[in-house]
Design brief:
single chain, alpha/beta, Gyrase A, domain 2, 5-stranded parallel beta sheet, 14 strands, about 55% helix, about 10% strand, binds arginine
Length: about 600
């Protein structure tokens, strides 16, 4: 059920209180949105910032208020009674500072431990989303750009799913380009028995692609044949369809290896899927007067852009944009998605800008870019750079084989882990399988976290040394921090399940309160990461959580102290929230080191 037993984030809960207060304060001004933020000053935990704006709307009209401060006073006074708020104070031009009740914070954490972290999921107003991500091209290389798209898209999907949004995870693979003409003809020429030989015939698909491209560029008879092949394929000729299917299948196997490593699930709906919808969609756009002739092509002119969006090429063929228009139409009308999210490199921003504008002109999307639905968002990301500051390449070859890259992360983390365990004299306690699984979690987790922790729009430098460092803001550091908390709990010898039911959390020391406050911000952080489509917000939260835990643990003794029960529960809550963060980032937690 939407909402369920979720109360929403602290911000949302406070907003409900302030909403009531605002309508009591200014009954003539209905529907004022409460502006509740985390407090920037030390006078409170949160603050409400409505007074100034409200004052400028009512001054002159109201006899009751003489300045913004008096509006703030009234907002504070009119708050309905609640367990959440300990006290309020009004500062300067009417900021209402809120101090949360320690007791309420403690109870919220305890309730979460009892009912599960699902009760801390934010409440989003969108029921259904498409996340279009990964989306490599058949027979071409799946490069680090696609890796970024896979990692970022998966995280966004996970965060939305956690927030009870129905998510359609779509792999929009490039399986319908003109490149298939040359691939198929090359296959027919070089491997007449391709049906039996199949996979072996094509062998290395990328080499095969290059070879057919060379012929296409050098040999005009071949080029002509290849162009005719596209028509025959698109006309549905059986031999051509079969060859096309074979090539797609081989590519798909390659892609799946990467998805398996990363634990990413996607549903393939490639470009070819939308092909039958293109004529109808273009007819609709044409009837709406959007499509014009230009230079032999059919195009849509977009305000603010020099060149138009080409939707039918001069040779009558469709392109990337025609497919995307049909796919958007399908997602809106057939799949009835409210939010359609595209994860690609920023290099494609112009394409998305233009075709979103076309969709707005067609009336498919609402005019403003704000928070109206249905909504389409392009999630752009920067380049992956090597340590030389240039586009990332591996030593061995021109292209980066993604599976090899992930393997290297894993084997490096295994070496490090073994070294560490030998130093600690713990290596004997580990089975081979445990070692393998842990190395995998750390290695793949490191690759993902290094990508996600930066604002996605910036370029990032791929460095094994950096991402596998066990100090600083890395997955290794965070995974170890989590394992350490688990071991504190284990070593206490207490039964946490029992403690959850019988014990109480008390936030006595400042460090305990700081940790508790950070824990209960989890929901609003996920909400913010979702609404802004920025996974780095969650990474930052996770890193800060482990810092706050360190502060707490270094100053508040746990095992053997008078506060042992309460503090063990705080340890457990930290571990639970960290694990959920890992899960949302697609990282597998480890429990021992
Ligand atoms: N195949 C494209 C590429 O490799 C990405 C497709 C993104 N999705 C979309 N609907 N355009 O660049």
């Amino acid at each position: 059920a939407k909402g369920g037993d979720r109360a929403g984030s602290v911000k949302q809960q406070l907003s409900r209180l302030f909403k009531a207060s605002l309508s009591a304060t200014v009954p003539d001004e209905p529907n004022i949105e409460p502006l509740v933020e985390v407090c920037t000053a030390k006078f409170g935990d949160y603050q409400c910032n409505n007074a100034m704006g409200l004052w400028s709307r009512i001054k002159g009209k109201s006899t009751e208020f003489k300045n913004p401060n008096s509006v703030g006073q009234a907002i504070a006074r009119n708050l309905p009674p609640s367990d959440i708020i300990e006290s309020t104070s009004v500062a300067g031009p009417g900021f209402v500072n809120i101090v949360l009740s320690d007791k309420w914070v403690a109870q919220s954490i305890q309730q979460m431990l009892l009912s599960g972290i699902g009760t801390w999921a934010p409440i989003l107003s969108v029921p259904k989303a498409v996340v279009d991500f990964s989306s490599p091209n058949i027979a071409k290389e799946m490069h680090v750009g696609h890796l970024r798209s896979t990692i970022i898209g998966d995280t966004l999907a996970r965060m939305l799913e956690f927030s009870n949004v129905e998510v359609l995870r779509r792999n929009h693979v490039g399986d319908w380009g003109t490149q298939f003409g040359m691939l198929i003809e090359h296959l027919f020429d070089k491997f007449p028995n391709w049906e039996e030989a199949g996979e072996q015939a094509i062998g290395d698909l990328q080499e095969f692609y290059k070879a057919s491209k060379r012929r296409f560029d050098d040999d005009s008879t071949f080029m002509e044949k290849a162009q005719k092949a596209v028509v025959r394929l698109q006309g549905g000729e059986a031999r051509y369809r079969d060859a096309w299917k074979k090539i797609c299948e081989i590519s798909r196997k390659e892609f799946d290896l990467v998805y398996q490593c990363l634990g990413v699930h996607l549903e393939e709906k490639g470009e070819s899927f939308y092909n039958p919808y293109i004529p109808g969609v273009l007819e609709e756009l044409s009837n709406k007067g959007l499509i014009e002739e230009s230079d032999g092509a059919r195009v849509i002119f977009i305000e603010g852009h020099q060149i138009p969006l080409i939707v039918v090429k001069r040779d009558g063929g469709y392109n990337y944009a025609s497919t995307d228009l049909a796919a958007l139409w399908y997602r809106l009308n057939i799949e009835k998605a409210n939010w359609i999210i595209y994860v690609t490199d920023v290099g494609q921003s112009q394409h998305f800008d233009m075709f979103f504008s076309a969709a707005r002109r067609a009336g498919w999307l609402p005019d403003s870019n704000g928070n109206l639905y249905p909504k389409a968002s392009h999630v752009g990301f920067g380049l992956v750079l090597g340590s030389d500051g240039k586009r990332f390449r591996t030593r061995s070859s021109e292209v980066v084989r993604l599976v090899e890259l992930l393997d290297e992360a894993k084997s490096r983390s295994k070496t490090e882990l073994q070294k560490r365990l030998k130093e600690n004299g713990k290596i004997a306690e580990w089975t081979d399988e445990e070692l393998e699984k842990t190395a995998e979690a750390i290695g793949y987790g490191a690759v993902k976290y290094a990508d996600l922790k930066n604002n996605r729009l910036t370029n990032y430098t791929f460095s094994f040394d950096q991402m596998l460092n066990d100090k600083g803001n890395t997955a290794v550091y965070l995974l170890y921090a989590h394992a350490r908390i688990c071991s504190i709990i284990r070593k206490s010898g207490r039964d946490v399940e029992e403690l959850k039911k019988t014990g109480n959390i008390v936030l006595g020391e400042p460090d305990e309160r700081i940790l508790g406050l950070h824990l209960i911000k989890f929901a609003e952080v996920v909400e913010e990461a979702c609404t802004n489509l920025l996974p780095n917000i969650l990474c930052e939260y996770l890193y800060n959580l482990s810092e706050k835990f360190t502060g707490f643990y270094s100053r508040c003794p746990v095992v053997g102290s008078a506060e042992e029960t309460s503090r063990l529960l705080l340890c457990e809550a930290t571990a639970v929230v960290m694990r959920k963060c890992f899960y949302l980032l697609g990282i597998t937690p480890v429990y021992k080191i």
